[in-house]
Every structure is written in structure tokens, then in C-alpha cells.
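Q: How would the C-alpha cells look for this protein?
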Amino acid sequence: MKLFKVSAGHYWSDGGALLGVLPYAIWKDKVPTDESLRQKMELNLLFIVQEGRRILIDTGLGNRLSDKQRDIYRPSDFMLPLSLGRLGYRDKDITDVIITHLHFDHAGGIVTDFAGREVLTFPNATYWIQKEEWEIAKNPDGLNKAAYAFEQQLALLEATGKIRLIEGEVEIAPGVSCVKCGGHTVGSQYVQIQSEDAFYIYAGDIIATQFHSSPAITSAYDVCRKDTFKAKQDIYSRLKAHNGTLYLNHDIKRWDIHISELRV
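A: Here is the predicted structure in C-alpha cell form.
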């Protein structure tokens, strides 16, 4: 098994919303922001290669944002196809895509606009999504309505893609498991990787940056802080048990942090 960090680009997110309960006075001198107090967010995805399988975790923003979204989030170009190409892989080579949750910065790259024609970015892949996450994205309630854009991001996948809706903790390939945790969204999941000699967790937006490694710091985007807190406790318990490493998907400086470096 081989693991690679692949970049899908970056965007900028509101600092207050991102750091949630952490007061501005604490982070204002520690986190660089632009003139609108937005923080740069990397879109670092995990790519797993093993015999017969090429597994991508999340898809980034894609290239189909509206002018309003571009103004708000200042996104870079969609870098995912280029990043995979540098490793020697094409879109058709991807066998599996795990989606940690269906917010636009994680699911937007499911569909790509090629010269005005919208197609699945990874046409041969099976997409692994928690059933509860799919259902809330398709039929959002008042709390979640603004967080999902099913017709724009997911309708083509529903019509033409291979979707596997899973529930709870499921091993989708040898040593690669999806673990439902909720918290950030009702159907959020993180990914656990057990190789022959190492253990990793890609936590998605449960632990998006180094600031979020503190169990009590959650973003304002989380639908349930209590569940996010529990998910972090579970993640750290597993990392400690296996002397493992945590991957951070949005941090601008760090990609991997060994459990020995975390004060938890």
C-alpha cells in the first residue's frame, strides 16, 4: 500500500466561522488572514494505491463554482487532475472515491465541466458515502438547506455513477475503513488506514487544521459540537492504540502529525 498527498488547490474561508468557539482575540495574531478576515484553506486529499485499487478521499471544489462563490471563497484553479497526473494516474484509473461529507469543498469535484460539458470526474469509480449523509444532502432540513446543492453537485452522480451508501464502520478495501462519526455533518465519516507497518486517520473536517486538534475547538459549521468532540476522542484513542498519524486536509502548513505531537 502506498499513500500520497494530492492537492486539489485552495480557497479562503471566513476565519470566525472556521474557528467557531475560539475567540478572535486568541487566534488573530496566530493565523494569517486577508482583508476580509478569511483564512486560506488547502485542499489536501489522500490518495491510496494498493493492488487493484486506486482510492481517492474527497474531490475538492471542482471547476463549476458560480461567480458569487468565486467572489466569496477566492478559489484557485481545480488542481486535482494535474496532481494525480504528476503521479502518473488519469481520471479513468481511479477505482474508488470516498467522500467524508457532501459539503461543496469536498464533493464539488465529483463533476467537472469539460468545455461546457458536465461529466463525472472519475467515471469508473465507486463512490462510498454514508447513507445518512446522502439522504440529508438530497432532502435537507432547515438547518442544512444552505450546506448542500444536490442538483448542482450530485444529480449526475445519482443518474450515472456507481454509489455505495454505507452505514457505520465499513472496510471498503483491505486495510481501508470508513468510520461514521457525525458532528461536522450528520453523516460525516473519517477514513482509517492500516498498512503493514503503520496506521493513519484522515479526519476530514472533524480535525481540519492544527487549531482544530484541540478536542473542544469546533467550527461554526459543525451541526453538533458534542458529536464532533466524541469523534475526536475516538480518533485520538485509535491513534494512541496504534501509534498512528493524523492527516489534516485544510491546514496550510502541516499535512501529517504523529499522535506523539498532539496534546490530547
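The first strand starts at residue 2 and ends at 14.

The first helix runs from residue 15 to 19.

Upvote if useful.
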